[in-house]
Protein 1
Amino acid sequence: MSALSPLLTDLYQLTMAFGYFRAGIAEREACFHLHFRRCPFEGGYAIAAGLEQALDFLEALRFSDEECAYLATLHDARKERLFPDDFLRFLQETPNGLEVDAIPEGTAVFPHEPLLRVSGPLYQAQLVETALLTIVNFQTLVATKASRVAHVAGARPVVEFGLRRAQGVDGGLAVSRAAFLGGCTATSNVLAGMRYGVPVTGTHAHSWVMAFPDERTAFEAYAAAMPGNCIFLVDTYDTHEGVAIAIEVGKQLQAEGARLNGVRLDSGDLTALSNDARAQLDAAGMQDAKVVASNDLDEYRIDALQKEGATIDIYGVGTRLSTCYDQPALGGVYKLAALADEHGALTPRIKLSEQAIKVSLPGRLLAVRLWDGDVPVGDVLLDLDHSPAAEGGGVTLSLCSLDTGEPVPTPAHTRVSPLSVPVMRAGQRVRPSPPLAEARALAKAELGALPTEVRALVATAEYPVYLEAFVARSRAELMVARRSPEASS
C-alpha cells in the first residue's frame, strides 16, 4: 500500500469525518491553517519545506476498495462496526474538493503564519491534518537546521550524510531533500540523488582501510579503482601518519595525471588535526587538496571549530542534522479557522487556552511581508475577507500586537508582498512544481536578508509578526463570546 494512502492518518480523523457525515455537515466549507508557535533551536526563524510532498499526498487523496475493506473491519467497544457502508461509499464517491494556498518552500517563516491554508469540504480538510503535519513539520525542521549549519559554515560546503542515523527510510529521504533545500551542498544518499536531483558524494569508510593489510595498500587500491574520487579517510590508525601516507599516494596519482582531492578526519581534536593535515598538504605542494571533517558536527560545533582556527574546507554533518538532535520536533499545529454555517456563510472559529500562545487565530488568513527596500521589516496576518488589499505599496495598514492585540506603529516600508500563493484547486496542482534548487536559492536569499540578530544561533531579537486590526478585533470578540456563560451553556 502506498505511503500516499489516505489511511496515513490518525483514527480520530476518520471518526470525526464519520461524525460530520452523520451530523450532516461533512461537506460544509471549512478553512484550516497549518502553523507553528515557536521558532526551533532557540533561533529566530524557520525555513518552509515539505510543500511538494504535501501536494503529492493531497493529489492522491482517494480511497481504494482495499482501504475501505480494511476500514470495514474496524469495530468499537461494543464490537459494532465503526464505519458503515454508506459512509465508506461516501468516502469513495465524493470528489476531492480541497484548495490550498501555501508559502513557497525556502521562504523564511515565523510563528503563527499559515504555512498552508487548506480549504474545502470539512471532512476532507480534517482527514488530511495528520499527514500534512508529519510532512511539513519534519521537513521544515530539517531545512531550518541545515540553514543554520550552512550559515555558520559560510563559504565552506556542508555535505549531509545522515541516512544511516535517520528516523527510518522515509525519514532519511526527507532529510536529504530538506537539508539540500536548507543549504547543504550534497548528500551521501544515492536514492535522494536520483529522486530529487541532489548532488551525491562519497569515497570510502574505515572498513575499506581495515580490509587491507595496511593504510598504504588500502589507499593505493582505492586510487587504482577510482583515481578521480580520492578523498582518503586518514584516522583509522594514526591520523598524522595517515595524512602522510595519503600524500605519498597522492604523489603517485599526480605522476599518473590524477590528483589527491583531499583527506577526511572523523575523530579526535579536529582543530589540531586539521591544522596538522593542512600543514602537511601545503608542504607537499597540495594546496588544492581539501581537508574534510566529520564526527557529530552541528552548527554549534562548526562555529566553535572556526573560532578555534581549524583549517577545515568541507564539513560532513550526519546524526545531529538528520535527527535534529537538539529539538526533534517542530510542534506545528493545524487548526480550524472558519466554517460555513447552515446558510453557507463562512464564520470564524477560535480555539481558546489558558496558555496565550495556544489561542488560535480566526478567519481565512493571509501573511504579507513589509519591505523597506530589500530588507524585510515585519510580517502581517490579514483576514482575506475583511482586510484591505495588501499587494504593492501605498497601502495603509492598521497593525496590532500579535501578543496583546493592542495597536502598534506600522514600520516604515516601501512595499508589501503576499507570502502565500495558490497551489491547489479542486484537488489538483495549479502550477508546476519549482525545481528544488530554486527553493534552495530562495532559502539562502531569505536568510541573507534577515537582521543579524534574528539569524544568530541564539536569536537576540524576534522578527516582528503583527495582526491587522480586523484580525485582532475578531480574535478579541470571539474570545469574549466563547468565554461567556451563554457560550458554555
Protein 2
Amino acid sequence: MTVEGFGPGRKAALAAALAAFLAPGLAPDARAAEPGWYAGVNVPLMFIDDTDSTVAGVNRSQAGEIAYTADATTAYKTGVKLGGVLGYALGNGARLEGELFFARASVGELSYGNVSVPALGLTLPDALSVPVSGSADQLGAMVNLWYDFDVGESWTPYLGGGVGFIRVDQGEVKYDSNAVAQAVSDALAAAQGVPAAFRPRLPEGYVPQLSASDSAFAYQAGAGIGYALSDRATIRVGYRLQATGDLEFNGENATASVDSTTSLMVHFLELGVRYRF
C-alpha cells in the first residue's frame, strides 16, 4: 500500500501524526516502574505428577506381628486452583508478594508395587491395583519474589519464585485400607499351602485409614508474560512448578498400623490479573 499525492514533507507529517495517535497504546506502562501496592487473583489449571510413596505396615495377631513394606503410586486428574496475592512493586522491576491459595484434584488411580515381608524374604510378584475415588485438597501460603523485564512495550515478561508451606488434606479419598495387608495375608497363606477359598479375610477396618492431612515446606518457580490493560490493571499468563517436602500420613489401631511418606510435584498453567492501588 502506498500514499499517493503527498510530497516527502507531508508523508513525514502523516507518519508523525500516526505515531502520536498510536503511542498511548504502545508505550510501556509508566506506573509499572513506580513503587506501589497491588492485589491480584489467579485461576490456573493444575497437573500433579504421579506421586510415589513409601508404605510401612504391621499386621498384629495372636501369632505375633508381621511387618511389610510397599511402594505406592497415585495418579491424579487435572485439578484447579484459586489464589489471591497482595504485593508491593519495589520500583526496580522486582515485586514482593504474599500468596494464599486453595487447590483440588481428584484421585484417578492407586497401585502398590514391591509389596514384601522383609523378615520372611517374601515379595509379591505382581503390582496391586486398588479402586480409589475422591479428591485431595491443598491449602497454601507462599512468599514470592518476581522480576518484570522492561522491554519497552505493553507486554512484560516476568520470572521468579517463592517459598512457603502447603497443607494437604486427603480426607475425602476413599479406598480399601485393607488391600495391601490382605495381599500379604493371602501370600503367607498360599506359602503354607492354604487353598484360596480357605484363606482368611481380614475384617473391614482391620488396617486403619491414614491420617487425613499433613503440612510440609514448599517452593516454586515460574515465568510468564503480562499485558497492561491500563496504567493500573495487568492481565497475565504463565507457568509455575511447585514442589513440597515430605508429607507423612499414618494410622494405628489394635490390629494394625501403617505409615506413608510422599511428596508432590505440581505444574500450573495460570491465568491471572493484578491491580495497582
